[in-house]
Amino acid sequence: TYVVTDACIRCKYMDCVEVCPVDCFYEGENMLVINPSECIDCGVCEPECPAEAILPDTESGLEKWLEVNNKFSAEW
Length: 76
Ligand code: SF4
Prior knowledge:
By secondary structure, the chain is α+β, with helices and mostly antiparallel strands. Helices cover about 20% and strands about 15% of the residues. Iron/sulfur cluster (SF4) binds near residues 19, 20, 24, 41 and 44.
């Protein structure tokens, strides 16, 4: 899955939302999040993000953000 990180806070450009083929972006408290169980790992959102806030979860140190993405996308 891909993960939205803190670079998105108060950004919300929404470019990523428009390109996602499975509509798995949701509104978090002050940032967007990706639902990890809906994301199909296509990667098209990553280069669209002007804040470079979207990273693949294969990068290290993203546990906290994966949790945030999980939590706020699960409420829908
Ligand atoms: Fe959507 Fe693809 Fe980005 Fe996952 S990687 S959030 S499916 S655009």
